[in-house]
Every structure is written in structure tokens, then in C-alpha cells.
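ingest -> validate -> predict -> emit
validate: passed (alphabet ok, no gaps, 116 aa)
predict: started
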Amino acid sequence: MTIQNWSDDIIVAELTDDPQFTDEMTELVDMVKAKCAGVAINLAAVSHLNSSNISSLLRLRKLVLAGECRLLLCSVNDRVRNVFGITGLDKVFEFTDDPATALATIQMADQPEEAD
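emit:
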């Protein structure tokens, strides 16, 4: 997994197609614990999910939301997206088409609202 600190408050992670990417998530969880950060996870290389993977993503989501930040999953292929749909988790996670859109979405959410 490649993890980048995109900015002070945004982390971008690119997961590999390892069935145990749960082990890779430890570093990401530690980074999120260290600072409140929006997280974009690129799943382009992931061809399947197992229950352990889903559990890790749910724990990360809980941690990110506790810090009042956002977690976005991007570049999810149809096979993996179907797993989210079948489990009902497509209504729990936020998805974008690509990392650039995920970054823009997180950055826009961080912008203060203008007074009318």
C-alpha cells in the first residue's frame, strides 16, 4: 500500500490486491489517529474483498468519522462494488470515480461556508 500525506488534513492511500490488505491498514489507522484527516482510498488494484477487509474498512470509517472527517473510496471496480451493494455497505461508504474527485470532494468539505 502506498500512503501519501496529500496535505495537513488529507491522506491518500492506494491499496494493493493483497487478500490481507487488512495488515496494510495498520499504518493508515495510526496516521488517522495521529491527526484528524480526510482519507481517500484508491481501490483500483483491488479485485476482491473478504470479510476481514470489510471489517478493516468499517473500523477505519468509524475512526475517521469520530474525527469529523470524511472517508472516500475511489476507483472501485464492478466486482468489488457488487460486494458493497450485496452487503448494503454501498449506503454506508462514500464512493467517487477516481482519486482526483475524492480529493476535490474532501477539500470542498473542508472549506468554511460563506456568510450570506
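Residues 2-106 form a domain with the Transcription Regulator spoIIAA fold (CATH 3.30.750.24).
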